[in-house]
Amino acid sequence: MEKNLDRIREVIRGNGNIVLVSGSEVTRESGMNGVRAEHMVYDIEQKYGYSGEEIMTEQFFTRQVEVFYDYYKEVVLGAREPSLTTVYRAAAELEKRGKLTDIVTRMVYDSYREAGCDHVIMLYGTVEDNKCPSCGKVFGSKYIRESKHVPKCDDCQIILRPGFSLFGEMLDNARLTKACNAIEYANVLLVVGTHLNSLTWQSMLRYYGGDKLILINTRENVGDERANYRAYGNISEIFGYITDYEE
Ligand SMILES: [Zn+2]
Questions:
Q1: CB atoms < 10 A from the CB of 214, how many?
Q2: Distance from the CA of 68 to the center of ligand 1, in angstroms?
Q3: Ligand 1 centre from 139 Cα, in Å?
Q4: How far is the CA of 158 from the centre of ligand 1 (A)?
Q5: Which residue has the higher pLDDT, 217 or 198?
Q6: pLDDT in tens, 123-154
Q7: CATH number, domain at 205?
């Protein structure tokens, strides 16, 4: 394993234009459930009577907005802010050194930006970008979390729209194009915390034609053998090591 990690570290040391693809295990490591919360499917069904994928849809938002926002507050946001793990901080450091070009993520939390990264493409949008559909005023996650009932614009009293795409909605085309371009022109593609067979990533990763696809994840999955380099275990530990990050 050590030898393997050293080989990956040499690739990172010796190359620029690295693009980071950040998956749900990175989010999980920071203590957050994500929108889908696939690791707590059973609990969610018990509590809400629906799955997260059913609740986080336009239809549900229109018909049962109270349940929609209960789920948003309790599952998507939870009791606390995401912790800034080594992955986020090491990514910021790598960007500062001019080696990391872009970060592409499905995550809806602004952790990379909070850690100091400037080039973050958030495919689904963010929990910090909830909007009043009438006046366009933006409300962050804190406002949602602290709303006693369904969150409304403090000027118009109109129910806010979540800042991220709902299931079944089209993704923002500009963001999608930007992400595909970043992946296509990447020298090194560093995929962290997801498996390569996930539908979103499968369609995007095929744009990468290089021979430096590095995969870091908690455990092995079917389809991983397409990566040129792989390592499994504690994501933050591995990421810190291969990027020469010092706490
Ligand atoms: Zn308003």
A1: 21
A2: 20
A3: 10
A4: 6
A5: 217
A6: 999 999 999 999 999 999 999 999 999 999 99
A7: 3.40.50.1220
Q: Give the distance (Å) from ligand 1 centre to CA of residue 194.
A: 37
Residue range(s) defining the domain that contains residue 111: 2-31+84-126+169-242
- Is the pTM higher than 0.85? yes
- 160 CA distance to ligand 1 centroid (A)? 8
List the structure tokens of 23: 């998956």
Q: What is the pLDDT of residues 28-58, one digit of tens each?
A: 999 999 998 988 999 999 999 999 999 999 9
Q: What's the mean pLDDT in 2-19? A: 95
CA distance 123 to 66: 26
The amino acid at residue 115 is A
Residue 231 lies in a domain: yes
* 142 in a structural domain: no
Total domain count, the chain? 1
Chain Cα centroid distance, residue 181: 18
Q: Is residue 59 part of a domain?
A: no
Q: What is the 3-state secondary structure (H, E, C) of the chain?
A: CHHHHHHHHHHHHHCCCEEEEECHHHHHHCCCCCCCCHHHHHHHHHHHCCCHHHHCEHHHHHHCHHHHHHHHHHHHHCCCCCCCCHHHHHHHHHHHCCCEEEEEECCCCCHHHHCCCCCEEECCECCCCEECCCCCCEECHHHHHHCCCCCECCCCCCECECCECCECCCCCHHHHHHHHHHHHCCCEEEEECCCCCCHHHHHHHCCCCCCCEEEEECCCCCCHHHCCEEEECCHHHHHHHHCCCCC
